[in-house]
Amino acid sequence: MREDVPTIVRFVYELAAYEQAPHEARATAEDFERDLFGPAPAARVLIAQDDATGEPVGFALWFTTYSTWLGKPGIYLEDLFVTPAARGGGHGKALLTELARIAVERGYGRVEWSVLDWNEPAIGFYRKLGAGPQDEWTVYRLTGEALAELGGA
């Protein structure tokens, strides 16, 4: 919901700090307003709340992908974050369970995401859920000046 935008911004910046890259986070509330709640949403967000207080304690930001090999859409989980004080309370599992439910309900073929190789707590958590690494693939990224140059700007 639109009223969650300040919470989403806060969680994104907390996640960037946790991932030791606070200087890379530049997204604004206006970016999320436009891209999550505009006429053509680029992504969707789930918010986890504390059962006792109703306060937001985490989020999952995701968007659909398409697998040509499966011939089906999928879900790419861009960000999963639970505040440090709320970790271990089942919120991360609840967010991933909801994403899996959405994928199954819609007939999607997969849910996938990236994790930093040093983030052992997250890796252990994902393995417990039955997720496995795709070690044979290397992620490439085109951004900044290289993107502008290749795109003709």
From TrEMBL:
Lineage: superkingdom:
Bacteria
> What keywords appear on the UniProt entry?
Acyltransferase, Transferase
N-acetyltransferase domain location, by residue? 1-153
Question: Which CDD domains does this entry report, sorted A to Z?
Answer: NAT_SF
* Any one Pfam family match given in the protein's UniProt record, by short name: Acetyltransf_1
Tell me the InterPro entries matching this sequence.
Acyl_CoA_acyltransferase (IPR016181), Diverse_Substrate_AcTransf (IPR051016), GNAT_dom (IPR000182)
TM helices/strands, residue ranges: none
Q: Which PANTHER family match?
A: DIAMINE N-ACETYLTRANSFERASE, GH14572P-RELATED
Name of the protein: GNAT family N-acetyltransferase
